[in-house]
């Protein structure tokens, strides 16, 4: 029997049972992608409208995504300008028949760093056009605030540049961001290990989006499972309320006073 999840992820008013989102690129085979998705059961699958490959390959890829029955989150990967991102988003909405868009506007091709100056403008227009915009951004607090100001109901700060697998490179800024803004935040890009995902979930992030760490693992299916478990563990730890670290040692078993077995013997 399925028990209702009272801790579902809610984005733009929609509930998702999982807090893990997966990318669909760079898997060794379509079968590996399918099996990884079946193992991880992600909330959404992101795919670039501008995928490389022949028209035939494209058609069978989209058919496979449909078969997986996981909501598709089209993305604007490869877009470098506001207009390009907006046009691509509108095409994606027609192709996938969905209001969701992962908004990427790349500002630097070497680091794949989001164009923080133009991202807000693109997001504002897309929100006005009725999209559910999930902007891929840096962990800069003021940028994230501006994205929220223009109507983004959730944001996706990076942990590290796409494909690096370095994990959160700026823990201080990420934790500050989490404390300062009260919107759903999904950490997108740069996670390499399940422990990275667990860490950001412990900090209170609402979910993670990742691709390379699963797709490029020696065993993508097993790694997909490991990430799904890590995301759930990090979320549970966050909700459980962690102890505060201490400077000095404190015995976890009190040894002072009368041992409890002493009373038992006297009774
Ligand atoms: C697929 C996708 O959207 C990536 O651009 C995303 O940002 C994930 O990054 P990693 O591959 O570093 O997990």
Automatic annotation (TrEMBL):
Pathway: Cofactor biosynthesis; thiamine diphosphate biosynthesis
Binding site for 1-deoxy-D-xylulose 5-phosphate: 163, 189-190, 211-212
Signal peptide: none
Active site: 102 (schiff-base intermediate with dxp)
UniProt cross-references to CDD domains, sorted A to Z: ThiG
Name of the coding gene: thiG
Record-given protein name: Thiazole synthase
SUPFAM superfamilies according to UniProt: ThiG-like
GO biological process: thiamine diphosphate biosynthetic process
Keyword Transcription regulation: no
Lineage: Bacteria, Pseudomonadati, Pseudomonadota, Betaproteobacteria, Burkholderiales
